[in-house]
Every structure is written in structure tokens, then in C-alpha cells.
Please model this.
Amino acid sequence: MAILPQAHEVPPELTVLELVSQGRFPHVGALRMLRHTDDEAVQEAIRLTRLEHLMDRPVDTLSGGEHQRAWMALALAQQTDLLLLDEPTTFLDVGHQLDLLGLVSRLNRDHGVTVVMVLHDLNHAARFADRMIAVLGGEVVADGPPSEVLTPGLLRECFGVEASVMKDPRTGAPMCIPHTTL
Model:
């Protein structure tokens, strides 16, 4: 299992390559050294998150979005069957949000990786998730396919907003347009 928490800290001067390599430490051999297959996993995670040009940069000098992608690469380098992601799109612009969510979707679809994500962007959640769970006050108030969960009633109950919910013309996923608070 790999976990991407919402907040992270790194020692000063730790490079992107060094950070992502940390994801392989559960796999190191008896001598606690990374092997060729570990190097390949690290390079693949860096490639998937489009960080090749930043490999030698200290993580503490990156923008918020680059920082988030570096931590995502660390999680991917672990090559686990389960990814737990807490707000993985934090600090990312919309283009990088879609890239990252597309990557997560491909990992699920093409490699069978189970992904559990916390997302506050309901339209992203509805577009990229097979199942949504809405929580209010620590209690589950809705659980199921996005088309059953993302409703005007749920948006009213959980967020106190009036909203329209319609099908995305490209994907068919439900999408909401909030209008006013109650």
C-alpha cells in the first residue's frame, strides 16, 4: 500500500530523485541498497509524473504543484496494488490536475491498482471515480456510482448549495454547477 498524505515535509536539499528513491526502500535487499529494478521503478515514476527535468532540483525549491507531483512519484515508485491519495490535486493547476487524475485512472484500468482518493472537487470525483462516497459530520450519507451520488439533493444536504446536475457531454459523467448557498 502506498499513501500520499495531504501535507509533507522534506529535509533541506533533498532532490526529487532522492525523494522518489525513498519509495523503493521497502523493496531493498539485504545490503539495504537499491537494485537495477529499483532504479527502473524510480525512473518510471518520475517519467509518469513528468518530472524528468526536475530530478536534480531540491524538493524545497519546487512550486506547490511540482512538490505535489514529486510526492506522487514517491508513491508510484512503491509499485503497490493499493494507492491511498489524500487530495492528490492540491496545488496543481487544472492541466496538471487532469494529467494526474488521468494517470491514476490508467493505473487502475491498465494495471489493476486499487485507488482510494479524497477529492473535494466533485466534478473531478464524478469524472474519474467508479464509486463516490459522500461524508457529512463523519457519517456516510451516500455511497454508489457517481450518477446516483452526485445529485441536487446531496449538494443541498452536504454543502448547503442549490445546484444543477447534468451529464458531461464528453464523458457522460454527472457534473454539477453550484448556483447559490442556502
The chain has a mean pLDDT of 87. Strands lie at 2-4, 82-86, 114-118, 132-136, 139-144, 161-167, 174-181. The helical segments are 16-22, 36-48, 64-77, 94-111, 122-128, 146-149, 152-159. The first strand starts at residue 2 and ends at 4.
